[in-house]
Every structure is written in structure tokens, then in C-alpha cells.
Amino acid sequence: MYISNNDSKHLHPGNTSTAFTVQLPRHLELNSDDWECGVVHCVLSAKPEKPVYITCDFVVPSILGGQLHPVLCSISAKTKAFEHITMVPLSRGNLSSLRVKIVNTQGLQATLKNDTTCIVLQFRKKNERKSMDDPF
After folding, report:
1. CB 88 within 8 A of CB 37
2. 133 assigned to some structural domain
3. Per-residue pLDDT at 112
């Protein structure tokens, strides 16, 4: 699934490159006990100076900065490609919109000098744990 902060601007005019909501073209009904999600690719107009974390409102939270946040992955200036995709279990499977925030190590909204954020998400069933590089 390809999403960006420019998607759904007509519905969510307050979207920014580090906090945005995307309305899906159709409702997804996934059993949250069976599905997980990971970031396959992310494009930021500017590389972050310090590590940042992509959070999304439909995954199981983990601890970041002493609090629970729904973290999908981390990105730093050294991140060139997502060679290993960390899959995170879904906290809800009833998806009609997605809320994405890019936060710093304290869990606060990050400040990036960019105007566009594009993210590619992969959803898969938990029992389909084959490597993405494995064609068989």
C-alpha cells in the first residue's frame, strides 16, 4: 500500500509531512489477530539528522521514550534501504483510514525540513513469514 502526506488533503487539510491521515479508497476488514504490517520503503525529502520513528494508529504499541507508541520502524540519516522489514502485529483490523506520525526518540512529533513523505506498507498474514527476497 502506497501512502503519502498529500493523499486525502481534501479531507484532512491539516496534514503535514510528519503527521497525516489517509482515507483509504475502500474499507479493509482484516482480523487483527492474523495480520501484521511493516514499512517496505519510505521517502523523505530530507534525511533526518537524528533517528525518527514512523508510527501508525493501527499497530500494537511498543515502548519509545518511556511511553507506548505504535511504532512501525525507525529511520536515520544512515538508512539507505529497508533490508530487513520488521513486521508489527495489527491492533485493529477495521481500517478505513490510517493516521501516521513521525516522531523523535522521546515520542514527540519530529521536525523535518521536507514537504513530502511517501511510505510503502506491506500487510501480510502472520503465518506467511517468508523472506521478501525469497522468490519461492
Report:
1. yes
2. no
3. 77
The amino acid present at 77, given as its one-letter code, is A
Q: What is the mean pLDDT of the chain?
A: 87
Q: Which neighbouring-strand residues pair with 88?
A: 37
Q: Quick count: other Cβ atoms within 10 Å of Cβ 23? A: 12
Return d(Cα 98, Cα 82) in angstroms, integer.
21
What is the domain range of residue 106? 2-86+97-125
Tens of pLDDT, residue by residue over 68-116, are: 999 999 888 666 566 678 899 999 989 999 999 999 998 988 887 768 8
Could you identify the residue written with the cell 495480520? 35
pTM for this entry:
0.85
CA 26/CA 82 separation, integer angstroms = 28
Nearest one of 18, 24, 29, 19 to 3, comparing CA atoms: 24
Helix, strand, coil percentages for the chain (3-state, nearest 5) = 0, 50, 50
